[in-house]
Amino acid sequence: MKDSFLVTGGARLQGAVKVSGAKNSVLKLMAAALLAEGTTTLRNCPEILDVPLMKKVLEGLGCEVVIDGSTVYITTPGLPCSDADFEAVRQFRASVCVLGPLTARCGRAVVALPGGDAIGSRPLDMHQSGLEKMGATTKIRHGAVVAEVADRLHGARIALDFPSVGATENILTAAVLADGQTILDNAAREPEIIDLCEMLMSMGAQIHGVGTSTITIDGVGKLHPTEHEVIGDRIVAGTWAYAAAMTRGDITVAGIAPSHLHLALEKLKVAGAEVETYNHGFRVRMDRRPSAVDYQTLPFPGFPTDLQPMAIGIAAIADGTSVITENVFESRFRFVDEMLRLGADASVDGHHVVIRGIEQLSSTAVWSSDIRAGAGLVLAALVADGQTEVHDVYHIDRGYPNFVENLQSLGAQVERVHH
Ligand code: UD1
After folding, report:
1. Predicted TM-score (pTM) of this structure
2. Which domains does the chain carry?
């Protein structure tokens, strides 16, 4: 658990990498398997720690789960258990996505309030009020959210205050089995939501407006198991794109639809990179110091908050001053404190950070606070002089399969240290 990465800066990353399935998709798809009795098969699953953690959660609910490399088989019983195992759920936030399927299937769900990343307060009010509109009662009891339905969920018109990814997913996975039509306004439009809708439709769900901010769901009585391929991880792919630009390297990334990263790649072009896109990948080349670029994180298709540490990383070594604005999570700038240790010239003002680029960062020991901050620190260490030790890399292991091996194959000097 206490592993760290030793990163020696200075290498220009060059070569090709293939990204596997998206972490933020696979966990929701695994939960969606609860909606149908029988065996659902998911292909292109990433080999990251969160997948076995989700396996535990589903096993606690009565499913049989087999992980065979990148394929996961989930066999759901006629009636899953409604109470998710407290300890299994508390270990990672994404487990809250079992709330919608359990409420729909069992008429009751008990899911511990999740722990997870230290990126700000992450309430569940929109998840709860969506389910309540569909006829459930919800309350927080002994550290868990408890949802109950007297009979069957019914369709409803629901408008989200903010296009929350998790709330959209829980409402979708509840509404597919509800009685009647649900119209969800201000829904999230992330590619992972589209992936979930596609899987649900292949299970027999009736969904319209997929990928738009108004999703209409006509509830059906029963869904059947399916076989589905997880979309590529756009955040991992984006991490490689920023690694190429920061190290003045040349990386070709396969396994991802470049449209899922459109704005992030456009920003790199403005910074001076050459970007080529293909059907299932892209190439980023950079041969000079990046220019400063401003960023604002927003729900998709805006710039992803999960790539905000990479935006800060490139801004830290850019020519000029950048302003980075975080609009999704309030505490995500904790990462900036670690960047200051690496010598970055950055100051935080509310949800903005102003960064005056310097030629080179300066190596030291730094600590990961969440998955993306951890990966962002590794990129920063790649452009620091000397050797940086990135601690608490168990965060990175939750989201980046074979990170060290991939970095090494691209020419980075990095090794894992077991403490
Ligand atoms: C998901 C992703 C995460 C990504 C985020 C935004 C997974 C496992 N995680 O997280 O990597 O950074 O989307 O793209 O898929 N909010 C409320 N009330 C609610 C729900 C959310 O106030 O009921 C707020 C949150 O505190 C946050 C914002 O809405 O400020 C966005 O959160 P949300 O889109 O729900 O993110 P997650 O689904 O938790």
Report:
1. 0.96
2. 3-19+232-418 (3.65.10.10), 23-229 (3.65.10.10)
Of all protein residues, whose CA lies closest to atom 2 belonging to ligand 1?
24
Contact 315/292 with Cβ under 8 angstroms? yes
d(CA 104, ligand 1 centre) in Å: 22
Other CB atoms within 10 A of residue 9 CB: 21
- Give residues with Cβ within 8 angstroms of 43, minimum separation 6: 21, 70, 71, 227, 228, 229, 230
Confidence of residue 118 (pLDDT cuts 50, 70, 90): low
CA distances from 9 to 64, 219, 328 (A): 45, 54, 31
Our mutation pick for probing the ligand 1 site, out of 25, 50, 122, 184, counting the most ligand atoms within 8 A of Cβ, is 122
The predicted-structure confidence for 147-162, as pLDDT tens digits, reads as follows 999 989 999 999 999 9
CB contact set of 125 (below 8 Å; sequence gap of 6+): none
Q: Dihedral angle at the C-alpha atoms of 265, 267, 272, 276, nearest 10 degrees?
A: 20
Question: Whose CA is closest to 75, among 106, 30, 105?
Answer: 30
Residues 6+ away with beta carbon under 8 Å from 197: 172, 205, 207, 210, 211, 215
Token readout for 389 is 């030790």
d(CA 71, CA 196): 17
Judge contact between 361 and 380, C-beta under 8 A: yes
Residues recorded for the chain: 419
pLDDT band at 419 (very low <50, low <70, confident <90, very high): confident
Q: Which atom of ligand 1 is nearest to the CA of 128?
A: 23
H helices present in 249-333, as ranges: 262-271, 308-316
